[in-house]
Amino acid sequence: MSVDEFIRTTGSALRGNYANARADFTVDQDLSTYTAEDQKLWRRLYERQFDLVRDYACEEYLEHLSELDMSQSIPDFAALSTRLRLATGWEIVAVPGLIPDLAFFSLLAARRFPTTVWLRKPEEFDYIVEPDIFHDCFGHVPLLFSQHYADYLQAYGVGALKAAKLGPEALVMIGRLFWFTVEFGLIRQGNGMRVFGAGIMSSSGEIVYSIDSPVPKRLPFDLERIMRTDYHIDRYQDPYFVIESFERLVADTAHDFTPVYTRLREMPTIAKAP
Ligand code: HBI
Ligand code: FE
Questions:
Q1: Would you list the domain boundaries of the chain?
Q2: Which residues face 115 on adjacent strands?
Q3: How many Å lie between the centroid of ligand 2 and the Cα of residue 86?
């Protein structure tokens, strides 16, 4: 889909500025557009969430977060990319906000992580539905420095492009895989249940809820169950899925999903919690 067509069809719902977007939906990050208020809000968001991730995030995440220097100001994507290329061959590219599925998957398949440039407003401190720069940088970027996770995300992009060719049902199914791993995944580690999904990692409420609450189910990672499970986008998840390691996640999703889509199409969807 072209940028113009995207603006025309999703127009009023789009929050970012798409006017200068290139055909692949990337833009330049202009650090001078962030105000002193934005920087202050970033520091507040970072500080609150940093205290939480220490107790709830997986090891790999914490290792890489502490190596990055994001606590004092909104990160410069070019500087992050320089380090990331050396670590895992990924880079950070700026995007205006949500971009079409195909554009998103194409960037992932090329080891380019689309990162939103705008920051939420102070009144949205606790919660936003769309990804902003805090969600993308704090939630996603640290794990891109981890080799198996980085490989998983690229493979996901390749697989999702293939699903898009197979049709809308396959795309819904592989979209659920992204949701229940990259955004809301849990991982079992030596120190107990930990978070790796970026949607949880950047949320002050859900990071505690996902680990400590007795309410949600925490099911072992099961590709086919995930592909059949519907979800809410605007409330805490139930269920969560728990992986054993990033290596296992890569291995468990390395096969061709084409026959899986065909089989699952005939099976009922597992409804989201009411
Ligand atoms: N665009 N910027 C951005 N960030 C996302 O996480 C994103 C997107 N476009 C599409 C999309 N996600 C979904 O297709 C995935 O959640 C599967
Ligand atoms: Fe995200």
A1: 3-264
A2: 94
A3: 23
